[in-house]
Write a structure and sequence with these properties.
It is an enzyme of class 2 (transferase). GO terms for molecular function: ATP binding; phosphoprotein phosphatase activity; phosphorelay sensor kinase activity. It holds the Pfam family HATPase_c. InterPro entries: BphY/WalK/GraS-like, HATPase_C_sf, HATPase_dom, His_kinase_dom, HisK_dim/P_dom, HisK_dim/P_sf, Sig_transdc_His_kin-like_C. It is found in: Cell membrane. The protein is of the alpha+beta class and 350 residues long. It has three domains: 7-88, no CATH class; 120-183, Helix Hairpins (Orthogonal Bundle); 191-341, Heat Shock Protein 90. It is 59% helix and 13% strand. The chain has helices at 7-25, 32-73, 90-145, 152-183, 196-213, 234-251, 282-285, 297-302, 309-319; strands spanning 191-195, 217-220, 229-233, 257-265, 268-275, 325-329, 333-341. The strands form two sheets. Strands 2-4-5-7-6 form a five-stranded mixed sheet, with helices on one face. It is elongated, with a radius of gyration of 37 Å. 21% of the residues are buried. The chain binds adenosine-5'-diphosphate (ADP) and magnesium ion. Magnesium ion is lined by residues 243, 246-247, 305, 309.
Amino acid sequence: MLSNSKILPVLLALWTGVITACFFSLYTDISQLYILGATVIVFVLTYLLYYLVFEHLIFTEIHKLYTLLTKVKKKDYELTKGELVKVEDPLSRLHEEIVDFASRKEQEITELKKLETFRREFLADVSHELKTPIFAAQGFIHTLIDGAIEDEGVRDKFLTKAANNLDSLNVLVEDLLTISQLEIGEIKMQCQNFDIHRLAEDIFEQLEETAGRRGVKLRFHKHTPRSCYIYADKYRIGQVLTNLIVNGIKYGKERGNITVSFNYQNDYVFVSVQDDGPGIESRHLNRIFERFYRVEKSRSKDKGGTGLGLAIVKHILEAHDSKIYVSSIMGEGTIFSFKLRKGKVINEKG
Ligand SMILES: Nc1ncnc2c1ncn2[C@@H]1O[C@H](COP(=O)(O)OP(=O)(O)O)[C@@H](O)[C@H]1O
Ligand SMILES: [Mg+2]
């Protein structure tokens, strides 16, 4: 590179020497020897001059700047003397450092802007979600206070409606708490060896009535082993399965089927929950794990969803170093799957 403290002065001195030689050669009465002598003297003197200027004024200052910039990048602002890093080509290094520094800052700013937008949207979403049940319960109670309480039929109906809305509010706040605790890592996974088949059987039993109301059948895939041990947090994996199965019941078709399957593969167990419902359009597939994202806003709300279920599922699986996958075919159904670490078989009583 030309920007070196030795090469640049040589080139500049050569250039000055050539100009001097050309100038003197215009005078025919000056001998060749004189011209050569004058050129050499001009070359040496200008080389020394340029060298001193470059080395001590420009390059040393650039060295200082470069070192300072390196320290700023490392967030160490104390510049001590005699600590300069010697680099071969400070100008281009300085250029690289500045470009690198600027692009990193740019990335940080973009990240911060994204977080800020996310925070603002989240706050707006939470307020909106909280407002709906509070507003409804408030309406029923005020109507009662304003006189509707006298009519026994209306009183019971309105009280039940107010209570239902407060129940929804409770579920929403609990989901919000879970999600924020999972996000800040406050909830640690309490891993143990357990039979996930047995856990799913218990969940089937708990959801029998809910599924029955829509005529939905809950079953295991025919090739699923009768017991399947995994090493995970039993309570949290129970939450994951419940969320996925409840979604299948709510958004799947009436009198449909929900099939749960487990498969051993090397050190892992692959779990899937499949329904034969209407499916999810591909443009929504990436987004359904976002908080409050619903495919059909009003229909999902009517079904009592908080819109946080899949976000919680995603967080729980991430805390198990795993990931949730979804694939869906319109009109055929949806399948959610994930893998968990295989566990040791233990003898459980009862
Ligand atoms: N098995 C499914 N079939 C069709 N749509 C689904 C299914 N599971 C989830 N969804 C869609 O994804 C959205 C997000 O799900 P989720 O986070 O569990 O929220 P919700 O509280 O509404 O159930 C739902 O509102 C629904 O639109
Ligand atoms: Mg749900």
